């Protein structure tokens, strides 16, 4: 327990001091009910110890570094499944049969186009707009094109909105990129699989067709799978909270995209690459590790640490292996950033500070190195995370609605002034 106190002010009563337990130890259960008649609740800043829902979708054992979707280990899904199959699993709790999979893939493929007026929407942004800023706007805007999405009580409408979201995310993401580099948009192609189609929309130009490498397309698909869901992380919790008001799925997912953008969450993949570039040379790693350990310096090692994993993030292991495969295929085995990243990991994992605090590389640590090697600019990294996380967001949104969840509404410990009389302007 820390020696910090929160002052709880209750109208008409004397303010009382309450001890605050440090977030990493657990919540302080405050019997506000006895004081205010409003019922008992826990004080848990950062929701360190609060389960806000029941869920059947994803299981994490943070101590052992285990991540399961529908019971299947993430390593097996990343190596043996594909993104749309994993999406089906998250939505249905079971792997699809061959017929189910074929029908699902066909349905997604038929919905990849976006309304032609969406193109004008993009043209309203500045060319130097961050693609995440564009994505937040255009995903929310889908609800303006599909009025059936507004009726979330209708299961058929919910299902078609989910399909539209998964199908159109790559198109919208690639459009955001093409707009930023001043190139014409590339239409989706039905003869390509999900990841090939995304890469083609990113990199084909009117002058030259993109030559799709099966290794790179497979790596892209793996990256999407590794991001597909992670139970009640900040962006998924945001989707659930927004969705609990009964808002439409496009608005709820746009809220999730906004939450994902922050550098403490999905924005960390972009921040990792910026950090590795700033380190620039293995000889400067110690300096950055020292900065990360300095309590008076806000700098943190980006891509390190996790709220739940107190052991290796299993996704980071697969990501590291994929980085080796992709960079090997591209003849970039000696990539200086990969070398810095590996050396940084080694130094941090042997350092007392990181060992004691159980800070290990997370999913964001190696993903940027792979994406950069594929030619994807850093500003698109979090967009790619959002694309991969969309099935998870939808799965949780659907589960919440099926459970008839109540509106999400946390409580607070009020620490402001107690009741007082208004002072007229000339007396202040
Ligand atoms: C997809 C994802 O969202 S994965 C996470 C991506 N984010 C990052 O990589 C950003 C860097 N990491 C972090 O900022 C944090 O580790 C988070 C946000 C991931 C987790 O945060 P929390 O669970 O709230 O941990 P918290 O911030 O309390 O950190 C615990 C302790 O470890 C330290 N710490 C945590 N992460 C780091 C880091 N990356 N570098 C240095 N110190 C760190 C904190 O300073 C704190 O120290 P203290 O106990 O002495 O005050
Ligand atoms: O679970 C979390 O808090 C963050 C994370 O790793 C993710 O969303 O993938």
TrEMBL record:
Pfam families registered for this protein in UniProt: Citrate_synt
Active site, UniProt feature: 306, 364
GO BP of this protein: tricarboxylic acid cycle
Pathway: Carbohydrate metabolism; tricarboxylic acid cycle; isocitrate from oxaloacetate: step 1/2
Gene Ontology cellular component list: cytoplasm
Catalytic activity: oxaloacetate + acetyl-CoA + H2O = citrate + CoA + H(+)
KW Transferase (keyword) present: yes
Keyword annotations: Transferase, Tricarboxylic acid cycle
Residue runs in coiled coils: none
Taxonomic superkingdom: Bacteria
Keyword Flavoprotein on entry: no
A GO term, aspect molecular function: citrate synthase activity
Family indicated by similarity: Belongs to the citrate synthase family.
NCBIfam families: cit_synth_I, PRK05614.1
The protein's name: Citrate synthase
The organism of origin for this protein: Oceanicoccus sagamiensis
